[in-house]
Amino acid sequence: MIVEQPGAWGVDALAESKLDPDTAAGLAAAARAHGVRVLLARRYANQRQLGPTRTVFLAHSGTERWWIEQLDIDAADPKALLAIDLGLLAFPEPPGIGMPGPASLHLVCTNGRHDPCCADLGRPVVRALTDADAPDVWECSHVGGDRFAANIVCLPEGIYYGRVDPGRAAPLVADHRDRMIDLDRYRGRSCYGPLVQAAEAFGRLHLGERRIDGMSVLDTERRPDGAVAVRLQQRDGATLDVVVTRERSDAPVQMTCHGGPGVPWRYRLVEIGSL
User: Number of C-alpha atoms within 13 angstroms, CB side, residue 223?
Assistant: First the structure.
């Protein structure tokens, strides 16, 4: 769920914004109950205040089916957000409670109070996309992975891109709208867990598969040593077995702009091969 909310966002954007506190708390509770992520968003050209209506996007990012619906609700009635049944986002068919949303929605994290990197690196990307007249681009609150800033999330597929520089942003979005993935900046899809994300990304790189719908996960198997074996099917192509594991990085790395170094997980390719 993406909720238009101009103005500053705090570390916990939903709770620390100008959104009505009771509404924010109610949305957070509903999101926990239904396993839904709520992001705040603002238009680059209108960062300070709402117009007469508030735009809300509902998105389902499944493995094979995905959709966006758009609702425009009265900006003077924030509690209208609580009437939206977030349980509807679990289903592969759009619920029909709003109008069809854009074909692609591009969210750039600029939540500088969560981490300055997101603002320092995200805002130039937003400006570059705006200058290029890229459609359906919004600034959004924290999406995870500060060290990968600038981050772009593309809905409805739930595809994450990281370390996007301003010069590459517009071509990346144009490619995505043409249903092609930038493999060099691809972080994975939100419908998969971290190890499966890594396996799918390794598989795409191995085959040079850029089509958004060009790769499907057939099966996963967790091994006793903690590694995960993932069987992938390329559309009209190879079936691929990919084994990945995760381990802590050998040396501390800078995790955020304002925090100290940390030791993040590193995803290592163990084995890959076609059947």
Answer: 13
Q: State both tokens at 109.
A: 């994290």
Q: For each of the chain's 275 residues, which pLDDT tens digit applies?
A: 999 999 999 999 999 999 999 999 999 999 999 999 999 999 987 667 888 999 999 999 999 899 999 999 999 999 999 999 999 999 999 999 999 999 999 999 999 888 888 999 999 999 999 999 999 999 999 998 888 999 999 999 999 999 999 999 999 999 999 999 999 999 999 999 999 999 999 999 999 999 999 999 999 999 999 999 999 999 988 899 999 999 887 766 665 666 666 767 789 999 999 86
Q: Does an H or E element contain 56, and which? A: strand 53-61
Please work out, in degrees rounded to the nearest 5, the angle formed at the alpha carbon of residue 106 by the alpha carbons of 15 and 41: 20
The CA R_g of the chain, rounded to the nearest whole Å, is 19
- Residue 27's H or E segment, with its range, is helix 21-34
CA pair distance 161, 152, nearest whole angstrom: 5
Chain centroid to Cα 79, Å, comes to 26
Pairing of strands 137-140, 105-109: parallel
Q: Are 160 and 145 in contact (CB under 8 A)?
A: yes
HSE, side-chain direction, 13 A CA sphere, residue 227: 14
Q: How far apart are CA 36 and CA 43, in angstroms?
A: 22
* 241 and 190 Cβ atoms separated by less than 8 Å: no
Side by side, the strands of the sheet bearing 39-42 are 99-100, 66-74, 53-61, 2-4, 39-42, 137-140, 105-109, 152-155, 159-161, 186-189
**Position 147: which residue type?**
R
Residue 188: which H helix or E strand, with range? strand 186-189
